[in-house]
Design brief:
With 304 residues, the chain is an alpha/beta fold. It has 2 domains: 2-109, Alpha-Beta Plaits, CATH 3.30.70; 114-302, Rossmann fold. Helices cover 32% and strands 33% of the residues. The protein contains 9 helices and 16 strands. A 7-stranded mixed sheet has the order 12-11-10-13-14-16-15. It has a 4-stranded antiparallel sheet with strand order 2-5-1-6. The chain has a 3-stranded mixed sheet with strand order 7-8-9. The N and C termini lie far apart (49 Å).
Length: 304
């Protein structure tokens, strides 16, 4: 398979907004590097960046019939940020086609171990430098979103560690690489129902579940909605984007038990109030929120 590698040069101010656009238009994940920039043609070499605030975003989309439309949408939406007053700096967009082996080499150069609380996320090809009390999650994301480096993943992992109780029944909507479901399993969840819309992500998640020896605790579904898959859920997490979260609000209500928790992220701060209001309309009460850069996680409790 061939991939389109998309590189955007922009400011730190615009980086998270641009990354969200890339993810919404089909990038399974986005690597953000700066002020030292990894050259696209030599991703293992770090180059000094002499332009203050310059940041590189790198993402990949599989080559297919919809590629041109997705690339056009990324360009239009990214450059449209300037019309809203966001400084996009140079605003350069570069695209090149790469083969599977080239993509794998490039993506691995971005993925390094990361610690969130007592959870240590480690690439499957590296030996973790773990403490005895660490919960090690070994991940090979493939083209799926979820390496632990994105603010929304960190926010969700922090929420899971704070609020998940041993024996909980968990729903993970948009599991991506499976990172949140694996963490939940290792933190003591009784069973996790995981959903994912992208076939490549389903395959990556399944491999990661087996790699971490938690596949017996997780049922994985290739679907765009959790409706009808599980009920009496104690703890649900959806780290996707604003619009799908709003569309799934009734499915969340049907799936989560009274007094159960719903954790949502993948939302930029500008849309947090809008999404929170929509979720509250179907019987959820906001109990907590946290931010990291331009991203937010909101935690709700389902009321009667």
């Amino acid at each position: 398979m061939r991939w389109a590698e998309i590189n955007i040069i922009t400011t730190e101010e615009a980086a998270d907004l641009a990354a969200n656009i890339m993810i919404e238009e089909g990038c399974g994940g986005v690597a953000i590097t700066g002020p030292h920039i990894r050259a696209a043609e030599s991703p293992d070499v770090i180059h000094s960046n002499n332009i203050p605030g310059q940041t590189r975003l790198t993402g990949y989309i599989p080559v297919g019939d919809e590629l041109e439309g997705k690339l056009d949408a990324i360009a239009v939406r990214f450059r449209g940020l300037a019309e809203t007053g966001v400084d996009i700096g140079r605003g350069e967009i570069a695209i090149k086609l790469v083969e599977d082996k080239d993509w794998a080499s490039a993506w691995r150069s971005f993925f390094k171990p990361v610690r969130i609380g007592k959870v240590l996320i480690c690439p499957s090809w590296e030996k973790p430098n773990a403490e005895p009390s660490d919960l090690v999650v070994r991940i090979d994301p493939g083209m799926a979103f979820g390496t632990g480096n994105h603010p929304t993943t960190k926010l969700c992992l922090a929420a899971i560690q704070k609020h998940l109780r041993k024996g909980d029944k968990v729903l993970d909507v948009g599991t991506g690489s499976g990172i949140l479901a694996i963490a939940a399993a290792k933190l003591g969840a009784k069973h996790i129902t995981a959903t994912e819309i992208e076939q490549m992500a389903v395959e990556a998640a399944y491999r990661n579940f087996r790699r971490n020896r938690v596949d017996h605790k997780i049922s994985l579904h290739h679907t765009d909605s959790p409706l009808g898959l599980a009920d009496d859920i104690d703890f649900a997490v959806a780290n996707i984007t604003a619009d799908p979260i709003i569309k799934m609000r009734d499915a969340f209500r049907e799936s989560i038990r009274c007094d159960g928790l719903l954790v949502i992220s993948g939302i930029v701060t500008e849309r947090a109030n809008e999404v929170a209001e929509k979720i509250s309309e179907v019987g959820f009460k906001q109990v907590e929120a946290a931010t990291d850069d331009d991203w937010v996680v909101v935690i709700f409790r389902r009321e009667a």
